[in-house]
């Protein structure tokens, strides 16, 4: 558990210092928790970059599902 907490702090620090474009993720614990622990900076950047894409796909899937149910 401590490793996970330390990793979360490292992720937050990385976002604040080197990748402020992902600041909105700091307010979303579910997003931070989805990031695997102990990633290199390159892998962390790659993962952070993919999150909005994955969230958009998930949203579209949910909306499609809802629209099918309402027919």
Query: What does the overall shape look like?
Result: elongated
Number of strands: 0
Number of helices: 3
Unreliable residue runs: none
Radius of gyration: 15 Å
Q: What helical percentage do the residues reach?
A: over 70%
Which class best fits the helix and strand makeup?
Answer: mainly alpha
Major sheet description: none
The end-to-end distance, rounded to whole angstroms, is 46 Å
Mean pLDDT score: 90
Describe the structure.
- It is elongated and about 50 Å long.
- The protein is built from 3 helices and no strands.
- The protein has helices spanning 2-18, 29-33, 41-69.
- The longest helix is centred in the last third of the chain and has 29 residues, at 41-69.
- The mean pLDDT is 90.
- With 71 residues, the chain is mostly helical.
Task: Record keyword descriptors for this entry.
mainly alpha, single chain, 71 residues, 72% helix
What order do the helices and strands come in, and which of them pair?
Blueprint: H1 2-18, H2 29-33, H3 41-69
Short description:
This protein has 71 residues and is mostly helical. 72% of the residues lie in helices and 0% in strands. The longest helix is centred in the C-terminal third of the chain and has 29 residues, at 41-69.
């Amino acid at each position: 558990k401590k490793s996970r907490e330390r990793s979360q702090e490292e992720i937050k620090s990385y976002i604040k210092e080197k990748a402020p474009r992902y600041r909105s993720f700091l307010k979303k614990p579910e997003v931070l928790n989805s990031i695997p622990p102990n990633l290199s900076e390159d892998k962390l950047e790659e993962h952070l970059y993919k999150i909005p894409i994955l969230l958009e796909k998930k949203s579209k899937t949910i909306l499609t599902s809802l629209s099918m149910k309402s027919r």
